[in-house]
Amino acid sequence: MLEMRPDCERCGADLPAEAPGAFICSIECTYCAPCADALDELCPNCGGELLDRPTRARRHHAAYPPSTVRRHKA
Fold first, then answer.
1. Is the domain covering 1-56 a CATH 3.30.1660 domain?
2. Residues 6+ positions from 28 with CB-CB distance below 8 Å
């Protein structure tokens, strides 16, 4: 099950689990579309490819809650 992190690790933009626009690598480092573009779709943490993160329908949030732990470090 994907963790569905709530923010971009680079700029801190909100990335709701039910909305498109998030990009992740295989270890779930998470970035917004503008940051993924700026990073040339390569994760700066692990060097992995950044791909579109699937969305999670809001009706599944109770059974499979998205993470609330923010990863952006100002």
1. no
2. 2, 3, 5
